[in-house]
Design a protein that fits this description.
globular; 8-stranded mixed beta barrel
């Protein structure tokens, strides 16, 4: 019908515009700080894509990631994210800033790509940064698809020296039976658990269980989506290691992130 036809045309137009954006460099990356549980020291940043659309202005991922996934452009976008993140770490180090890891999200399509390990290796080689300063975030549900090939792919990434994080841990079918076999360094607690951690005893119990599980497997645990000091305090009491969220900082340009990193480094040194 007419409504479906209009929606299809709009989707097709968005995909075409996204192809142009990739070719013309309209996509850029902002970085949201990740801190130790005290909230004083920045230990990393998550790379989050933005689209500087020539007509619609700055667009958040929710406006175009769906189109990138359906068209397959998300693989090219993911490779761009890897290259940009690694170059950005290199540039910050060249500016005299402390080495800071950057986390990059890996989409399902990109994770299943035969080029994944090769593209990560190319980004590292091109930038020359130490591999441990690149962190790849992979959702729990992605790891449950074809366990053997997933394990092989993760081991290939681990061999490069990059850090691996299970994102949104606990929101899907938990892979507890396989977790010990995956070379993962970090678990990331989803915002849906953080939202209720100060008010709901059951939610707090789940968070505490995740923290204990992670620590028993020699992993660090990061909670995302912190919006209040009360949430930070509760997560600290439950043993969480690292935090991320609007309470500590929104995603910002590389220049703003670098300025904040420099200011915090001077404060820590004084």
């Amino acid at each position: 019908d007419g409504e479906m036809h209009a929606a299809a045309r709009q989707q097709s137009q968005l995909e075409n515009e996204l192809r142009v954006a990739l070719d013309e460099g309209q996509l850029l990356f902002h970085y949201q700080p990740q801190l130790d549980i005290s909230g004083r020291q920045v230990i990393g940043g998550e790379a989050l894509v933005r689209w500087q659309h020539p007509e619609r202005g700055m667009l958040a991922p929710g406006h175009f990631i769906g189109a990138a996934e359906s068209s397959g452009l998300v693989v090219e976008l993911g490779e761009l994210a890897l290259r940009c993140a690694c170059r950005q770490v290199r540039d910050w180090i060249a500016q005299g800033l402390p080495p800071t890891r950057v986390a990059v999200n890996i989409s399902p399509r990109q994770f299943r790509s035969s080029r994944l390990v090769e593209s990560v290796a190319e980004a590292l080689r091109e930038s020359g940064i130490p591999p441990h300063l690149l962190e790849l975030e992979i959702t729990e549900s992605m790891m449950l698809d074809e366990i053997e090939s997933t394990k092989e792919r993760l081991e290939g990434l681990h061999a490069l020296g990059v850090d691996l994080t299970i994102d949104d841990f606990g929101t899907g079918y938990s892979c507890l039976a396989y977790l010990k076999h995956f070379p993962v360094q970090r678990l990331k607690i989803d915002k849906s658990f953080v939202d209720g951690v100060t008010e709901d005893a059951d939610t707090a119990a789940i968070v505490e269980a995740v923290v204990r599980l992670g620590h028993s497997l020699r992993m660090r645990v990061l909670a995302e989506g912190i919006e209040t000091g009360a949430q930070q305090a509760r997560l600290q009491a439950l043993g969480c290691d690292e935090v991320q969220g609007y309470y500590f900082g929104r995603p910002v340009s590389p220049e703003t992130f670098a300025a904040d990193l420099a200011a915090r480094s001077e404060l820590m040194a004084s």
